[in-house]
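Q: I'm building a small set of examples for a reading group on sequence design. Run inverse folding on the following structure and report the sequence directly after it, with nothing in between.
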């Protein structure tokens, strides 16, 4: 089960004017807990102004290539955790860090001969950097196209590292797109990643035919445009890995999602059993009340969570008995849902008895 531990900051590197990467020292006794897969993320918690703030940031390193655990963080104006990590955190300080989570990855295998297309927007490069390094190290016969959109040349995170990789590996092609492009850029590679721009880019760079897997991570409007274009071009959804880092919906849309009509006619009070770290706890919950996660927190359980917005999957648990319904899901894959996994921050009981197990992986 995902757990917080105290880790010491071993290095901080300024990547761009408004982003840093932060590496953590993992003590020998926690090495197994912090084993990760490329593309996963870490969740941090910190008391700030009397309030516990939790945020998740993607790991930018590769478990195969790099001998360290490092995240990258872009400073969000008006944010809390990202300005702290960018401006105040110092080497040697400690942070409360949850063990790695997330499913934004594919299994790599040296016998694979795949074509990958990866779309990154701004700090969306963070998980993609680890994915690229891992594929290049393991799958010598696979090909990668990275379409990397940024505001301008100076806001490109990991530019030098990515260029070094492209110089060293013929099977990595990097295509830059800038909102504010330099004069030597053609129109195709300048401007925002609108649907039209994405369509033109994938056609020009032959990024659809024979592509086995797509990865998409960046600002929500860009991601929506890319996934719409891929869908319209008939790309099978199962080939597309998506990682949202922020809540996808605004507050009004969230309320609408919460109040959407239930597919179940169960409307009473359910008895909920939560299994966490081998312990069991029971409480009652109204079908139209809080989420199972919030009710578990109110019951005093230290259940894992981060975004509470259906995007990070930190609150994932398996329904072992009974039925639940989720308001939204932008994090679980179809097959995980079929296996009974739910986002507990979005889940409401739809049967008299529900058992959810946070220990199931
Ligand atoms: S806490 Fe992020 S999806 Fe539930």
């Amino acid at each position: 089960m995902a757990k917080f531990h105290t880790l010491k900051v071993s290095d901080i590197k300024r990547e761009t004017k408004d982003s840093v990467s932060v590496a953590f020292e993992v003590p020998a006794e926690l090495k197994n807990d912090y084993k990760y897969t490329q593309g996963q993320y870490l969740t941090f918690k910190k008391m700030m102004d009397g309030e516990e703030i939790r945020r998740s940031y993607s790991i930018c390193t590769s478990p195969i290539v790099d001998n360290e655990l490092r995240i990258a963080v872009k400073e969000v104006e008006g944010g809390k955790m990202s300005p702290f990590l960018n401006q105040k955190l110092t080497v040697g300080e400690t942070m409360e860090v949850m063990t790695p989570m997330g499913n934004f990855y594919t299994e790599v295998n040296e016998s694979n001969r795949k074509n990958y297309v990866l779309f990154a927007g701004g700090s969306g490069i963070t998980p993609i950097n680890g994915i690229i390094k891992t594929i290049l190290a393991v799958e010598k016969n696979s090909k990668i196209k990275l379409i990397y959109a940024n505001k301008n040349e100076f806001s490109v995170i990991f530019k030098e590292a990515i260029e070094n990789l492209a110089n060293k590996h013929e099977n990595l092609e990097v295509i830059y797109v800038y909102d504010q492009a330099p004069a030597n850029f053609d129109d195709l590679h300048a401007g925002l990643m609108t649907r039209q721009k994405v369509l033109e880019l994938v056609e020009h760079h032959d990024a659809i035919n024979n592509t086995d897997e797509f990865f998409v991570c960046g600002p929500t409007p860009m991601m929506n445009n890319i996934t719409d274009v891929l869908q319209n071009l008939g790309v099978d959804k199962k080939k597309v890995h998506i990682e949202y880092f922020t809540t996808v919906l605004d507050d009004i849309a969230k309320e609408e999602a919460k109040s959407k009509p239930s597919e179940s006619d169960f409307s009473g009070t359910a008895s909920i059993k939560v299994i966490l770290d081998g312990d069991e706890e029971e409480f009652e919950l109204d079908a139209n009340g809080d989420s199972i996660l919030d009710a578990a927190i109110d019951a005093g359980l230290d259940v894992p969570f981060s975004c509470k917005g259906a995007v990070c999957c930190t609150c994932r648990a398996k329904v072992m008995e009974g039925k639940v319904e989720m308001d939204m899901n932008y994090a679980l894959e179809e097959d995980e849902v079929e296996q009974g996994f739910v986002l507990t921050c979005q889940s409401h009981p739809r049967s008299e008895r529900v058992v959810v197990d946070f220990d199931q992986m």
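The pocket of FE2/S2 (inorganic) cluster is lined by residues 305-308, 310-315, 331, 343, 345 (CB under 6 Å).
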